[in-house]
From TrEMBL:
Domain Bacterial Ig-like as annotated: residue spans: 134-200
Superkingdom of the source species: Archaea
Protein name: Uncharacterized protein
Species the sequence originates in: Methanobrevibacter smithii DSM 2374
Keywords for this protein: Membrane, Transmembrane, Transmembrane helix
InterPro entries in alphabetical order: Beta_helix, Big_3_5, Ig-like_fold, Invasin/intimin_cell_adhesion, PbH1
Pfam family membership, one: Beta_helix
Gene3D superfamilies associated with the record: Immunoglobulins
Coiled coil residues, start to end: none
Domain Right handed beta helix: 477-633
Amino acid sequence: METILQLLKKEDFKFFFTFFLFNFNNAVILKYRRYYLFLSSKGLYCIRANIYYMHSYSWINGIIWMLRIFLYIMERLIMNKKILVFLLVAIVALSLSAVSAADNTTDDVSVLSSYDDNAVVSEATNDISIDVTAKDITYGENATVEAKIIPNTTTGNIKFSLDNKINQSGVIANGSASVIFTNLEIGKHSVIASYNGTNSTPFVFNVNKISVYNMTIDAPAVFYGNNVSAVITLPEDATGDVNITIGNKTYNGKLVSGKTTIAIPNLATGNTNATVVYFGDKKYANKTINTTFTVTGNTVTNDTFFTYFGKDGVLNNDITFSDLIFAGNFSGLNLSTLTIDKKINLIGEKAILKDISLVIKADNISVSNFAIVLTNTSGVESAIDVRGANANIDANIFSVNSAFDKNSFVINAENAVNLTINNNTIVYSGKTNGNGINNIIRIIDSDNVNILNNYIFAEIPSVPVNYMPPTWAATVMSAGIYVEGSANLNIASNNIAIEYNNANGAYDTIHNLYIEGGNNAIIENNNISTKGHTYVYGITISGKNFTIASNAFYSDSDNYYADGIQIYDNSNGILKDNEVFVESPVVAYGIYSSNWGDKANNITYNNNNVVGNSSYIYGIYVSGNNETLIGNEITLVGNFTTGVASSASTVTLNKNDIITNGNNIGNASKCGDSIIAETTGVKIAYGNATVTNCTVKTTGEYTVNTTGAGSVTYNSLVSNVGLGDKTVQANNKTIVANNGPKFLIDVPELVKIYGSADKLIAILTDSSHNPIANANITFNINGRNYTKLTNGTGVASMDINLVSGSYKVTATYENTTVESSIIVTPTILANDIVKFYRNDTHFVAKFTDSNGTALKDNTTVKFNINGVFYKANITNGTATLRIWLNPGKYVLTAFNSVTGEELGFNVTVLSTVITENLVKYYKNESQFVVKVLNGDGTPANGTNVTFNINGVFYTKEVINGTATLNINLYPGDYIITTMYGKYAVGNNVTVLPTLITKDLDMKFQDGSNFTAKTLDGQGKPLANQNITFNVNGVFYNRTTDENGMANLLIRLNPGKYIITSIWNEYQVGRTITIA
């Protein structure tokens, strides 16, 4: 605004004297004068000046001392100029300073003294002065307007006019009057007070919008995947819009009755800052509030448990995650059961549920990577209870100790079709006394169950099977896996070991697998071990079309009875490629097709290997209809050993190899079976039997003993009395023909010491076990044939000068070949060694002569390792070579100077400094970590390791077995050397860039962008990062998008430029070429 400085003379104004007051106080007179100045020629405005001054009583002649001046501008300056007036009056010099033309104000102004004897002052005729004041108010408040009138002795009423519309009067009291105006609208209001024709200067006051009011945001935390629902509440009569801004996104809501709800989708897990803005209305001022919205992730901890679950342990309905992660230990929740009643994947991250079970009540639920520990102090019956379809229980660890004599299961499933139990580790301890059921896995009426790749170890009591009226159906109290009424069962690739920890009651029994009444069961590739007290069963199965294949069964009874595989009821299927071992003190069955219930039908036994040891033992016992045995191997040891026993209506044996070695001592009828045990290869109690192409060797009198109908033909039969047909006991209903052999070649395995005189022999006998002399027998060893002649005892022999090791050997006579083996044991006895660098482990070998006698002391032997020969003397039969080599793998050769044998051994020297190459992204948290061990493999805590990288040495202490070095180098490839003691090892350290750029070749103004990409510490794109580009001396800032990309449009003239990209304290230079 323009400022004008003017000097006014008395002819430029009219000066009215308005009030004159004398106050006498001793010799001093205080005088107060009020003047109005009406400027006529220098501008159009008027000024009221209050002048305070004092002087002596003789003021007319006076000496004047001016104290203070207050100025009040009553009207605006029309010319919009700021005028500085220097007024000369008779007795006072006045400095008037005008303020902005838009405002009315009161200022203190400095005063200059002056004196003019010629000034003329004329008095005004009006002696009334009115001064109006009012405070600004908020909408809804009442405005109190006060007018002060001078002289203050004035009486009567002052009229107040508001906005020239509303008039009120106030009674004058003590020089002032006031009125109250109500229901005023927001904005500026002008009030004039008047008294007997004298008006005050208009006074303006404001009615402001309400700025102090409640505005609340209620947005409860939600689970990830749900919209945040923000409820914004203002006064009920508030109207208008509310915006919520998050980043560059804005969400709008309109107020209804002072409230609006705004849905915010797709927020990330955690806390998100937001700005909530109400834009105000005619009554309420705008307001801004910063708030935070919380989105809860899918990780449950013990502390946050009840965010996801109710107090009753039921999963909350509003969880939308497909995965729910449990982290850490869970206990002290006052819960014994978690109920999952919606589709979800439960995933453990080092999660332990203690005395808390899972109940699955919905379909499509998976449970993986949990550790569930039940001590059953809370009475929990099962670790996981499944009542839904398509459940998956995978990679969990279970530790369950059952309560005494209560039902107890690890996994209990009923009506749970398509259940998969995979890759779990289960440790179980049962405590039933015969009243409570102890099953590790129990499956009832659940089709398509898969039990795969699990490790199960259980200790359970051996108690009797419970037969309950009226049906007298069996209730198996102690079992590993119990399955009932479930079709399409698949139990595969599991390791299941069951042992009894107590025995109670008569006929106490343990079943490893018990499968009842389900068709199409597949049991394959399992290791099934069962050790029990009285009755022990590896697997008991009934059902149609089952397959039991490629399993290993081990059943061991301490007291009475062991059974590998038992088939019962009206069942059919195939058993193939199984390994079965049974052992008991009294009775054992390798495979048993029982005749209780309806008989089994059409069961095939192919290529099974059955081995057993018991007083009374049966390799394969069949008693159903149409039983077929093909390609099985049966080897039994005991008192009475029966390879195959049959009471089947029809049985066929083809290409089976049977060896039964029995002592045949005592009364065989005590076996307790309807087929009396005896040492024989095949015993047919009744029925139609066909035995062909089998090899049977027994220490009993008969290889085949049959009382039924059928045929025994084309077999190789050897008993303790002879060979071939003469070893078959049969009635006239059985055809016995063409059974061999005519002679027998026996080649015992040879085990000899290197260089000894032991020989390989073959024994040749005829069908009555008489020796055959002067017969040529051809040995084949290592691909070479050697022919030797039998002596008078039917023995042919040959020297063996092989180096130590194992060899296959065959002996052939008249187109009959038998196999055997040779084992040559060394005269240098030592083991491969694995040692830590420079510890006290050394290579020690025992040296013997060819008779196995240790070499004498001070005998010299030699070693060769890493190309160097060393001599050592024998002390107490051994020689020692100290190993001080660097970490690595070596072959050590030892030389026996007496036998001439030399043998190689592996020597592995392990590093006590274990390192790996490091690949990391620039400035992420990855460190170079070295594991440092003592010579015994224990952590070398408290020692120091030195690192050298990029020419700088760093020394770090070993803590908890490791030493670490932070890598804060720029992107590039480095070699780091780790030094510990006398050992040093080098590794590669690769620092990958997190700012990715490349050179740009472009045409002039073709719209090309120079692009930079930012990555986080894991190599993932990083959004909302500010990148600075410096090109041609000019800096540009760009922000990366959701793909981590920032683009700079290039508009330079043709030429070659260097562009530098700067981010996260890292700079990358590139070339831009513009053609």
